[in-house]
Amino acid sequence: MEDDVIRRERKYSQSRNKVPGTVLLLVIVVALCLCGFFIMSGLGAEDEKPADPVTVDVNMENISKADPDPNAGEDPNPVKEPDPEPVKEPEEDTRPVIVIDPGHGGTQPGNVAYLADGSEILEKNITLPMSYKLKADFEEAGYRVILCRDGDVNASLGERAEISNQSDALVFVSIHCNSYTDPDVYGLRVYYETDKEISKELSKTSLKLAQRVSSATASAGIKSRVNVDDFQVLRENKKPSILVETGFMTNPEELLRLLDDEYQAKMMKAICDGVLSYIKNDMPKPAEQ
Ligand SMILES: [Zn+2]
């Protein structure tokens, strides 16, 4: 009886001890599961990382196809920015080249004259609009024009000649306005250089160019002649080159004409025609060289 009681008590105590043991076991199992889950989810996240760019790439493709703004929702890529190739554009532009040199500019006003009302006229402010008109004429004829200065800026004579020398220019044309002590002297003069160090042949082609331009301006009703003088932009030039003194600012009537938009346009058209006539008739063709 007594044994029986003890056994029952043991069984009871065993069954009482079993409950917390099971709970503990359950807690451990749950804890292990949770740890396993966190570890697995952690590893899984790492595993999924390399897959991310693929989905982003796909999205980016979709965006770039659907959205006209390629920068929208996309990280800017600074590595791609230093890639521009500006060299390609000039290569694709196969138009023949003319260099136009608008005389003076910036701190170099050139000749200075005064109108009857006392207003000051600077040569640099006449040669620039003239050069823009000449540029437009050449472009209309299918040429590409390089300006030695674009705007009211300084450019040395050496730099102007160098721009011509570094280019594929067929011809170099410098635009100026003249001055003289005698106010009665007027008319356009086309200068070329005889003492070219490079070659006598170049001097001859420059003379032909000057003659064509003088002839074309004369045909347009402008008093014109060819002159020889030593100008740095011509002397240092390796292209057939002329300097056009478009008129005398010291002659009051011619000064007004030089400022006239229509007169400028007529004169520049004639200079362009003269240059085109030289290119067509006197310039050696590439096949003949
Ligand atoms: Zn000048």
Number of helices: 9
- The average pLDDT is 80
* End-to-end Cα distance: 136 Å
Estimated structural class = alpha/beta
CATH architecture of the largest domain: 3-Layer(aba) Sandwich
Total strands: 8
Radius of gyration: 42 Å
CATH superfamily of the largest domain: Zn-dependent exopeptidases
Shape: globular
CATH topology of the largest domain: Aminopeptidase
Low-pLDDT residue intervals, each spanning 5 or more residues: 1-19, 35-73
Small molecules in complex? zinc ion
* Main sheet overview: 6 strands, mixed
Count of all domains: 2
> Helix content range of the residues, please?
40-55%
Major β-sheet strand ordering: 4-1-5-8-6-7
Compressed to H and E, one letter per element, the order equals: HHHEEEHEHEEHEHEHH
Describe the structure.
With 289 residues, this protein is α/β, with parallel strands linked by helices. 51% of the residues lie in helices and 15% in strands. Strand 6 (188-192), helix 6 and strand 7 (224-228) form a beta-alpha-beta unit. Strands 4-1-5-8-6-7 form a six-stranded mixed sheet, with helices on both faces. The protein has a two-stranded antiparallel ribbon with strand order 2-3. It is built from nine helices and eight strands. It folds into two domains: 2-66; 88-283, Aminopeptidase. The chain is globular and about 60 Å long. Helix 6 crosses helix 9 (261-281). It binds zinc ion. The site of zinc ion has 5 residues, from loops.
